[in-house]
Design goal:
heterodimer; A: mainly alpha; Serine Threonine Protein Phosphatase 5, Tetratricopeptide repeat; two-stranded antiparallel sheet; two-stranded antiparallel ribbon; 22 helices; disordered N terminus; B: about 1000 residues; mainly beta; Immunoglobulin-like; Ferric Hydroxamate Uptake Protein, Chain A, domain 1; 22-stranded antiparallel beta barrel; five-stranded mixed beta sheet; globular
């Protein structure tokens, strides 16, 4: 009898071990079920593109990055002889100040943003292109063509700013590519841009299915611009004339109205980057804003008065730029706001920021009448008129002049001038190189404040003479971000001179 | 003589009355010196119902209806419990032997307990006595300065604001918060009522490896109060009323000083003087005194506890209401808690313990620590502006370039801030212990947390006169968040002694943990009447313009399945060895790395037990300890191993927003846990009859495979797109080394005077060993407006060090400027009176490549000091904390010409030889505002955290129970010694990269409490 407790405890122990073992086996068996759960409410990026809607949604993502190009426009203008950095103080956004003074180095947060954001655009377009053959549906060709247009647009920005960039074809860049893919030469990048646009043009609609989407004309104009940047003038002339001859676009009579809300997506709009004031934004993610961030940055410092909202007084035109306009040129007062005259006329008050010139970049400064949703300086709804018909005419004129067709070149140039002056008295009658010079000056005046000037000066070899601090052989390109050269682990060399 | 005889007769008389009940009186004393023990418990454990009492101030007790043969149990903390069989009535004198093995105190070590003497890991405890003395509003405060190796920093002095606990330093750029286990289940320290806590145990070394993949940051084990067995119902009530005020105001310029400074600044920039006649400006508005107020705080808590020989219970409730020193009720914090704890012996072998805690929190908050924070505005608003304008309305800060568009009237800001946060939380556990056979116990436990919170923020339509905080359309944003988790533990513990000398304890078990929840967010526009009273989405019917989404949500479901085992072996309780192994499988990691093994061991040797030490001598205990182990950290984003379409894709088609899908954070399929390799060696030494105790530890913690979220990668992969992020990659290593020393000394100076002293000191040496992302560094933080990132994590440097320009005084004259490399790349060419920056790389220009290490926010030395003195009925305690050798960045000065400034500008450079520290003032362009060591200050401080004086009122011993009433006055944060110019050198956002940058931290309050502790 004395043994009983012992036996029972042994039995207990045995049964306990058995139970424990069972429990452990049980829990191990269910480990895969328990831990291998699928994440709740999420879509796997590698199992997408199963329906038309998926392609449409991915296309929106590719368009989204266009809004981040506000910085390209703003910084491109500041880099040129048209404007100064301005801002609150000499240290306000130091990266912008340095570009203005041509003392920028590879450590520059704004140049890094341009690099990052434009590549993000490429990758979003490439995501769609990577899966372009997965699902068939009617209308896919147009969507694929738009993705190609967008990729070309982003690549064109990058080649303008940084020169050679890596290329990957119809798939996304992956981590590690920075150490293996070379920076393709400028020629190769342009070849890729031409290829995308040539593939896109046949599939794009003449009239966009929705306002804001890329059209055949937009792709042709961008292709013409790409040719022009490579001095492929004959090809540029051909494709740009197709845009002109299509009859889809006209110069709207009211130059001032083009840059107001009512003039958005007007008859002269070949391609516009769309912005809205419908959603808030913050400084933590400027590229996330649905508004045109540059407009608030360019805005009048501490402005109180009619018509304009205030802003941060960046990108202020120089006296030289103001004086570049001939008397009677109605475009001057549309492009440049003389703030003292404005204050005298309306009783408005304003503040004086860094490098105050007395002028503001009137096309892209904040206006009243939007929702002013916070941060109101980041949510201005002004579209960026990326490719205007006037630009197309001037590019065509330049290409035609270079290929010996001065007559048509003059015609295109004078169309632009007649609208600018509102009369026929300012037509240009020059030919040859003189005509070329007129065309280039006209580009500056017509496109003042729109971010083209620096790159026009560079591609025509005129930058060193026009921009203070510009060193030929160095400043044609901006430096790769310091980090990128590091990330590439010796694969990429820094641009010359930096 | 006659009297003595009388007593004798009385005693004889009682003997004859054996078998009948009688009153029993007694006195309980300390056996060594005869001092009465106050509050010792005396219980007749075999009476039905149970009778018991506690001793009064003179050590006396009386129990009625006692029968000879009854068993009286006498117990007192720190003394050996005695059971006495009552023989007869009369005065019983009981002498208690102090429990020399004060080390028989039991320490919670995770899935079990251990006698303190036998603990071989680096473990520290804080008991309820310390909590009683500190009277913290939040539990975390009780750990500051009381435990070596634990550093607590406040994020803000606002009521209810978060605190960061760092055990042995910052080891990762990710989440550094320790794991908190409340009564065995994973919990949250921030919502616990401090008075409900019985002990806090901190596992600092590899001993925490029993928690595997979640233990890398250290583990804090909380046990809540339970009733005691065989103890009559005890009721205790604690209350205090406190008055809070700011612990610091900064020395700002008054209106006259400000006006004159501005004149000088404008003259320097060649501009018209703003105050041509500065006479009559006077002192102007002191914005700090306009926003800082004296705020009340009230706390009540009641606990009822007790137990029979089969069950224990403890029920408590509390309420804390604390107004803020800024904004009063606009930053109010209210916490209500209710708690039930029950322990039942269901049978000889089966024990049930359960507890449940309900917490309700209501918190309102003001904008803090950033551009636009209330205090930021109070420091930058001009003193020449009056609080109210002529119409009696709160004045508007003018919209001028000199004042910018971010500085607004802080008083108006407080008035226009409306928000509310409510949390209701229920957590608890049910645990069953089954004693299978002698030595073998099986424990099953279910722990749970369920929390629902609601947030509401009203954006009032408001015009501050053209400032960024203007709101043109009112809105109310609401959210509802539901967080739940549960854990199930099943483990067995087997204890066995072999041959009298070998002791073995083995523990093995499994834990299942799952957390799941969701959040729902929505905004309604156009709040009726632009009024908080109507700020609810049900009334705010407006929506965003076309296509914009005013709603959002998230969900999660994360799980962990673990097995663990532990073997504790000792030989003669002299040589100890513990080995632990844990296997975790977690949903945080990719399929290829889903499961991980975490081994560790600890060993100890009680050298003082060796024969060569001898019996006599001053050394009572000398124990050496060593431990090494690998722990994990899995606190990263969920689902980082798969790519999801969580990015943001919004564009405008046809004039309305079109929402699409985009890739979110890039995945890293080979994601795995961080690996914390922890080494610790130390000793415990007790001297002079355990009066002097010394614990010392040296540790080396190396964190490998650091999980770096959003690791900087080449921009070509597109991670900077909206909603995008770089992958989380195991790509770094950080090492923390340090020394901890804790000394306590307890001495009874005389019959009535008792002294306790304790001191602890911790050194910390942090170094980043690896950042494998191509550049070797990661940036973070923000300084000023639009400047390069000021903080870095970089190989060879402390994590989060400050990366900026080094200064070399002030240019005194033009020839000095001439002789120095150009500073134009920083914004402007230097002039005499400007800061001279060092050409660190000596390339002849000052540019961003000259940035270097200009300090780090990590305090290399922290220490705590505590003194407790009891003189008769009077008690006194004081706690002080010091933090040395850390740096903090002054970032609350808006770099604009017309904002107010600190008074150090009175000693600015005004001409050659006037100053070599503070640059000139001018409205002209300068580079003086770039991030440099001019803005980095020594954050060392010594703070008197708490001083308390209490008096226990004399009460006569009553029959049955002895009431006790203690009244006290307590002062918190009475004094902070620091050279830092800002509000609070001890504050930090807690961010590993970007911490220690001060946008105007809300200072901790200086508080005076008047309290009472009543128990009967």
């Amino acid at each position: 009898m004395a043994l009983t407790p012992g036996i029972s405890s042994i039995m207990n122990t045995k049964s306990l071990i058995f139970t424990l073992a069972l429990l452990l086996i049980g829990t191990s068996a269910c480990e895969d079920d328990f831990i291998g759960r699928t994440p709740v409410y999420s879509i796997d990026s590698e199992n997408y593109f199963n329906a038309e809607a998926d392609y449409r949604n991915a296309l929106i993502a590719a368009y989204d990055m266009l809004q981040a190009s506000y910085l390209n426009v703003m910084l491109g203008e500041i880099a040129s002889d048209n404007t100064l950095a301005g801002g609150e103080s000499a240290t306000d956004v130091i990266g912008i100040q340095q570009v203005d003074d041509m003392i920028h180095t590879p450590v520059n947060a704004q140049l890094q943003s341009i690099w990052n954001w434009m590549f993000a655009g490429i990758n979003r377009a490439a995501y769609l292109l990577e899966f372009k053959d997965k699902t068939e549906f009617e209308g896919k060709a147009q969507i694929v063509a738009e993705a190609r247009f967008l990729r070309a647009y982003y690549q064109f920005e990058l080649v303008k700013w940084f020169g050679p960039i890596p290329l990957k074809g119809d798939e996304r860049f992956a981590l590690g590519d920075e150490t293996s893919l070379p920076r393709a030469s400028v020629e190769e990048v342009f070849a890729a841009i031409e290829n995308d646009l040539e593939l896109a043009i046949p599939d794009l609609a003449v009239n966009a299915p929705q306002t804001g989407r890329a059209t055949k004309g937009a792709a042709q104009a961008l292709l013409g611009k790409a040719y022009l940047y490579q001095s492929k003038n004959a090809q540029a002339a051909t494709v740009l004339r197709e845009v002109i001859d299509s009859g889809v676009y006209q110069l709207s009579d009211d130059f001032e109205d083009i840059f107001e809300r009512t003039g958005e997506n007007g008859p002269g709009a070949v391609f516009e980057v769309q912005y809205t004031d419908a959603e808030g934004a913050g400084f933590g993610c400027l590229q996330c804003s649905e508004g045109n961030v540059a407009v608030g940055f360019n805005g009048i410092r501490n402005h109180t008065g009619p018509f304009f909202d205030s802003g941060f007084s960046f990108n202020v035109p120089t006296q030289e730029a103001y004086d570049a306009y001939e008397p009677g040129d109605q475009r001057r007062d549309v492009a440049i706001l003389d703030i003292d005259a404005w204050a005298a006329q309306t009783g408005a008050s304003f503040g004086i920021g860094n490098e105050h010139t007395g002028y503001y970049n009137r096309k892209y400064i904040a206006r009243k009448g939007d929702s002013n949703i916070g941060d109101q300086n980041l949510t201005n709804p002004n579209n960026y008129r990326s490719i205007r018909y006037a630009d197309v005419l001037l590019m065509a004129a330049e290409a035609l002049n270079a290929t010996g067709n001065d007559e048509l070149a003059r015609d295109y140039l004078n169309q632009v001038r007649r609208r600018g002056f509102g009369d026929l008295d300012h037509d240009v009658n020059a030919s040859g190189d003189a005509l070329r010079d007129f065309i280039l000056v006209e580009r500056r005046l017509e496109l003042m404040g729109e971010g083209h000037r620096f790159f026009d000066l560079v591609r025509t070899g005129a930058a060193a003479g026009a921009i203070e601090g510009f060193s030929a052989g160095k400043h044609e390109l901006f430096p790769l971000p310091f980090e990128e050269v590091q990330f590439s682990n010796g694969n990429w060399n820094q641009n010359p001179g930096y | 003589m006659l009297k003595q005889l009388f007593v004798y007769v009385l005693l004889l008389g009682t003997v004859t009355l054996t078998g009948q009940s009688f009153d029993l009186s007694g006195i309980i004393k300390d056996g060594s010196n005869g001092d009465p023990l106050i509050g010792a418990s005396a219980i007749i454990i075999d009476s039905e119902p149970m009778k018991g009492t506690v001793t009064d101030f003179d050590g006396n007790f009386t129990l009625s209806d006692v029968t000879a043969g009854n068993k009286l149990q006498v117990s007192y903390t720190g003394y050996e419990t005695q059971v006495i069989t009552i023989q007869q009535a009369g005065l019983l004198v009981i002498e208690m032997e102090s429990d020399v093995q004060a080390l028989s105190e039991v320490v919670v070590i995770g899935y079990g307990t251990q006698q303190k003497r036998n603990v071989t890991g680096a473990v520290a405890t804080v008991d309820s006595e310390v909590i009683d003395q500190l009277r913290p509003q939040k539990v975390e405060q009780a750990l500051q300065g009381t435990v070596a190796g634990v550093n607590v920093t406040t994020q803000s002095g606002a009521p209810g604001a978060g605190l960061n606990i760092r055990i042995r330093g910052v080891s990762t750029n990710g989440q550094n918060a320790p794991l908190v286990i409340i009564d065995g289940y994973q919990g949250d320290l921030s919502t616990v009522n401090p008075t409900d806590i019985a002990t806090i145990t901190v596992l600092k070394d590899a001993q925490a490896a029993v928690y595997g993949t979640v233990g890398a940051n250290g583990v804090i084990l909380i046990t809540t109060k339970t009733g005691d067995k065989n103890r009559p119902t005890q009721l205790s009530y604690n209350t205090y009323f406190g008055i809070q005020e700011t612990s610091r105001s900064l020395n700002m310029l008054n209106a006259t000083e400000y006006g004159l400074l501005l004149n000088e600044s404008y003259a320097g920039g060649g501009q018209e003087l703003p105050y041509p006649d500065a006479t009559g400006l006077g002192f102007g508005t002191n914005w700090q005194s306009e926003v800082f107020e004296t705020a009340p705080m009230v706390s009540h808590d009641v606990t009822v506890s007790g137990g029979s020989d089969k069950m224990t219970y403890s029920i408590s409730g509390s309420r804390l209401n604390q107004e803020g020193i800024v904004g009063r009720e606009k930053s109010n914090f209210t916490r209500n808690t209710a708690r039930l704890s029950l322990g039942v012996d269901l049978s000889e072998k089966l024990k049930l313990t359960t507890n449940a805690i309900f917490t309700n929190i209501d918190r309102d908050a003001l904008s803090e620590n950033g551009l636009g924070a209330v205090l930021f505005n109070a420091l930058n608003a001009p003193p020449t502006l009056s609080l109210r304008d002529e119409a009696g309305d709160l004045s508007l800060v003018p919209n001028t370039p000199g004042l910018g568009i971010e500085v607004i009237n802080p008083v108006a800001q407080i008035a226009n801030t409306f928000n509310d946060y409510d949390l209701n939380k229920l957590n608890g556990q049910v645990s069953l212990d089954y004693k299978v056979i002698e030595g073998l116990t099986l424990t099953g436990r279910v722990g749970f947390n369920t929390a629902n919170s609601e947030g509401r923020n009203f954006s009032k339509q408001i015009n501050y006169g053209g400032k960024v905080f203007d709101i043109t359309r009112s809105s109310v944003s609401q959210n509802a968040i539901n967080d739940n988790n549960y854990s199930f533990d099943l483990f067995g513990t087997y204890q066995k002694n072999f041959g009298g000398k070998h002791n073995l304890t083995t523990t093995a078990g499994t834990t299942i943990f799952r957390e799941l929840g969701n959040g729902l967010f929505a905004t309604g526009f156009d709040v009726p009447n632009n009024d908080w009273e109507f700020a609810d989405i049900s009334l705010a019917l407006g929506t965003s313009p076309d296509g914009a989404r005013d709603v959002g949500s998230y969900s999660y479901d994360e799980r962990r399945l673990s097995y663990f085992g532990r073997v504790q072996y000792d030989f003669m309780e002299r040589y100890f060895l513990t080995a632990m192994l844990r296997r975790d499988a977690s949903t945080k990691f990719g399929p290829e790395n889903r499961a991980a093994l975490f081994p560790s061991f600890t060993a100890g040797w009680i050298a003082s037990d060796e024969a060569f030490f001898g019996e006599e001598g001053p050394i009572d205990l000398l124990k050496f300890r060593v431990s090494y182990g690998i722990l994990g950290n899995d606190q990263i984003i969920n689902n980082g191993y798969i790519g999801t379409l969580s990015g943001e894709a919004t564009y405008v088609f046809d004039g309305t927003l079109a929402n699409g899908t985009a890739i979110g954070a890039l995945p890293n399929p080979s994601l795995q846990w961080e690996e914390a390799k922890k080494f610790n060696v130390g000793f415990d030494l007790a001297l002079l009859d355990y009066k002097l105790n010394i614990t010392a530890d040296y540790f080396i913690n190396t964190r490998d495979n650091l999980l770096i979220s959003n690791i900087p990668v080449s921009g070509i992969v597109g991670t900077s797109a909206p909603g995008g992020a770089a992958p989380t990659v195991n790509a770094g290593a950080v090492q923390n080394k340090g020394l901890e020393l804790a000394i306590t000394y307890q001495q009874r100076l005389s019959k009535d005077v008792k002294l306790n002293l304790s001191y602890n000191i911790t050194t910390l040496d942090n170094e980043v060993l690896e950042v494998s992302n191509g550049t070797g560094f990661i940036e973070g933080g923000a300084f000023g407006v639009g400047q390069l990132a000021p903080s870095r994590m970089e190989v060879g440097q402390p994590i989060g060090y400050f990366y900026g320009y080094q200064t070399d005084g002030i240019f005194q004259n033009a020839s000095e400027v001439e002789a120095h490399p150009s500073q134009i790349a920083l914004g402007a060419e230097a002039q005499p009176g400007d800061i001279r920056y060092v050409d660190v790389n000596q390339d002849g220009v000052i540019d961003p490549n000259d940035r270097t290490n200009i300090g780090d926010p990590i305090a290399n030395l922290t220490m705590g000091f505590n003194v407790q003195l009891k003189v008769k009925r009077l008690d006194f305690s004081a706690f002080a904390f010091a933090s040395l050798n850390g740096e903090i960045v002054r970032n609350y000065e808006r770099a604009l010409s017309d904002v107010n400034r600190l008074d150090y500008y009175l000693s600015r450079w005004t001409g050659e030889g006037t100053s070599n520290e503070v640059p000139r003032v001018t409205t002209a362009a300068t580079s003086n505002g770039v991030f440099s060591d001019f803005f980095v200050e020594d954050a060392s401080f010594l703070r008197l955290q708490n001083v308390q004086v209490g008096y226990t009122l004399p009460f006569k011993a009553g029959a049955g129970r002895n009431p006790s009433l203690r009244l006290y006055v307590s002062g918190n944060n009475l004094l902070t010694l620091s050279e830092y110019k800002g509000f609070d050198p001890g504050a930090s956002s807690g961010a590993p990269i970007g911490g220690g940058i001060d946008y105007g931290f809300y200072p901790v309050a200086r508080t005076v409490l008047f309290g009472a502790n009543l128990s009967f």
